[in-house]
Amino acid sequence: MSGSDENWLGGGLNDVTGVEAVLWVRDVDYMAGWRVARESADRLNRALLGVGLAQSEVRAVASSDEESRGVVRLAGVPDAVGRLAQLLEALADGDGGAL
Fold it and tell me: How remote is the C-alpha of 88 from its chain's centroid?
C-alpha cells in the first residue's frame, strides 16, 4: 500500500459517519467534544496496538455528536473485532486475557 491516497492507512475504517454527521448547527463548538474524544481514542488505539491489533484492522475513531459531546467509535474488520472480543471475554473470565 502506498501513501498516495489519504485514506490508505485506515483502509476505510475512518468512514464511520452517519446522517447526523452532515447536520451542523451554527455556534456549536463541535471541536471541544472532538478533542476530548480524540484523547480517549488515541489512548484506546495505543492499547489496541499493545495487544497486537493493527490499526489497519481495528481502531478507535473520534468524532462528536449533534450536541457537541465527544464520541469514540470502534471500527474494524470482523476478524480483528472478534479477536478483541475474545481478549475482553478472557479478561472478564479472569484468565489473564490470553488470545
Answer: 16
Instruction: Specify the pTM.
Output: 0.68
Distances (CA, A) of 79 to 84, 85, 95, 97: 9, 10, 22, 17
Where are any strands of DSSP class E within the chain? 58-64, 70-76
Cα Rg, the chain, nearest whole Å? 16
pLDDT in tens, 30-89: 788 899 999 999 999 999 999 999 999 999 999 988 778 899 999 999 999 999 999 999
Closest Cα partner for 87 from 14, 33, 76, 13? 76
